Amino acid sequence: MMDHRTDGQVVLSFDRGTLLLAGPPAQGRACDADSSGWMWDERVGAWRCEAIRYQAVHAALERRYGVRFRDEVPKPVRVVWPKNDLVELRREQTEALTAWTENGCRGQIIMPTGTGKTEVAFAAMAQAQVATLVVAPVRDLMYQWHQRILATFGYDAGIVGDNTFDIKPVTVTTYDSAYIHMDKMGAGFGLLIFDEEHHLPGKCRREAALLSTATMRLGLTATPERSDGLETDLDWLVGPVAYRLPFKAVRGSTLADFDVVRVPVALNAREQATYDQCSKVVRHFLSVRRKETPGYAWQDLCKETGKDPQARHAQKAYYLKRSIEDRADEKLRVLEDIFRLHQGQATLVFTGSNAMAIEVSKRFLAPTILSHTRKRERLTVLDGFAQGRFPVLIANRVLDEGVDVPQAKVAVVIGGQGSTRQATQRLGRVLRRSGAARATLYEVICADTKEVHRSRKRRRSDAYERTVHRRV
After folding, report:
1. Same structural domain, 333 and 359
2. Torsion angle of alpha carbons 119, 121, 122, 125, nearest 10°?
3. Does 229 lie in the same domain as 127?
4. Is 76 inside any structural domain?
5. Domains in the chain: how many in total?
6. Distance CA 171, CA 175 (A)
């Protein structure tokens, strides 16, 4: 049992990702220092609240108790950078940094892919000069941040993740590792940087923000929207939107201009017959269930697959439909035509499944990068693509966001979700400006299937406004 004798003083401390308040307020009555968020913890005889409230709690306690208030929460150390090789910020980057600073060094910066959000984050780090934790979605991005911090500041940052637990004043980690370990390191950092912040509001990952006392917070993304609507929680977890740069403001200037070419293909007779039969199975099952249970949805079907053979059969039929759309034979033929049309040009191919990515790789003897690709192989492939040894690079989702991809001006989407975020991120892979070169995004879709609907849905992003969609 912890000893919370305070000699009449009000004491605030950090305990496993929470704030602990002991002293006169802890006499069994409601905590009147800052009533919101506090809960009485009988185990230790003190009040407890989430660490994210530290700044407001500290100010309220200091106002109320003055010299009788003692703050024992560990303070982040100051960071002295060995060097500072920051690039000169463009006008919109400077505006973003200024807006974030004027917002109390808290908030979100929303800028299209390829406009240099990382450079803004580095400028914020150089300005803050305080212990900083950078949180990235995946290991590859974590290592990318580590390498870029080393190149920019000459600082060998710590790493928490990928079987490594090395905390330094400047550390990089992943969302999954952050929420697992933040109870131990939540009071050590003054600045949190959430790369691709739309991952943060998830049920578990949000603890990376909730369990930290950091007063400065910076969220970076090109696409904050989530299908569950939880992006509104980012205002509390990170701070309100400090700066938003519309896509149209940088198209053709900071970013390359581009064309979208839609290529509809038809299923062959065998594929069409199987597709129609699967559709019939799914429709019949849902029709029967909705008569019995109005409002019956796909989520309900998924919940029943473990105990209902008919639900499991319908689910298998649905997934078979998706695999036919993803792996239609005609898509491979069209892909071959596109490769011939852009022979000698670096081309990215985005698939809808790992199986399709592997199939394309075997057909055209081109390398793939998938979620399970090992780090060394991934770096070799990206380097080969940058050097021109591999003219084509194939990926499923791993290159959708964040990871720096060598310059390419041709992308082919042959499968994917109906997500506008995924569509915008994939488009952004080919929009880094290189002279006057124009980018081209091909979208190969199966006509008269659900893929048409998904294609329309994902192109509702502002990135596709006033875009000429050619159909061939």
Report:
1. yes
2. 160
3. yes
4. no
5. 4
6. 13
Tokens 């939540």 found at: 186
pLDDT tens sequence across 105-154: 999 999 988 889 999 999 999 999 999 999 999 888 899 899 999 999 99
Give per-residue pLDDT as tens, 225-240: 888 889 999 999 999 9
- Which CB contacts under 8 angstroms, 24+ apart, belong to 177-184? 178/133, 178/135, 178/205, 178/207, 178/208, 179/204, 179/205, 179/206, 179/207, 179/208, 179/211, 182/17, 182/207, 182/208, 182/211, 182/212, 183/16, 183/17, 183/211, 184/16
Flag whether 252 is in a domain: no
pTM, whole model, 2 decimals? Answer: 0.84
281 shares a domain with 224: no
Distances from the Cα of 385 to the Cαs of 228, 346, 367, 379, 396, in angstroms? 36, 7, 9, 10, 16
Same domain, 95 and 224: yes
* Domain final residue pick, 245, 277, 299: 245
Q: Which domain holds residue 191?
A: 91-245
Question: Has residue 80 been placed in a domain?
Answer: no
CA distance 101 to 216: 10
pLDDT for res 92: 95
pLDDT tens-digit map of 42-73: 888 889 999 999 999 999 899 888 888 999 99
